[in-house]
Write a structure and sequence with these properties.
Order of helices and strands: EEEEEHH
Largest sheet: 3 strands, antiparallel
Distance between the termini: 49 Å
Helix content: 25-40%
Structural class: alpha+beta
Oligomer: single chain
């Protein structure tokens, strides 16, 4: 069995505002620690039938960057959903919603 480790460090200021997010993964294309401005981690607890989530963004993350982050995350979720379920119709619906989101967010 192969094991891949993902490490995330979150730095906060005195008021507990997020200053920096640093991460690394043993299987990442780029080796060493990487910087991020936002992250969303979702884990599925099958016993409780609920998702466990951690959403963090740094205080200098712009609204424009957040809009792009959400748009790209929605597209990625659509692809993941299709790969897991083979449901092309719902994948297309999610991608359509992502495009509509991007249009509204750009206004």
């Amino acid at each position: 069995m192969k094991v891949s480790d993902i490490s995330i460090a979150v730095f906060m200021d005195e008021e507990k505002n997020f200053e920096r997010i640093r991460w690394s993964a043993t299987d990442a294309l780029a080796q060493g620690e990487q910087e991020a401005k936002a992250m969303m981690v979702a884990l599925w607890d099958a016993d409780a039938r609920s998702s466990l989530r951690v959403d963090i963004w740094t205080k200098d993350m712009t609204i424009h960057d957040m809009n792009d982050f959400f748009f790209q995350t929605l597209l990625s979720m659509a692809d993941t959903y299709k790969n897991a379920t083979q449901n092309l119709e719902l994948m297309a619906d999610i991608k359509q919603f992502a495009r509509e989101f991007a249009e509204k967010a750009a206004k």
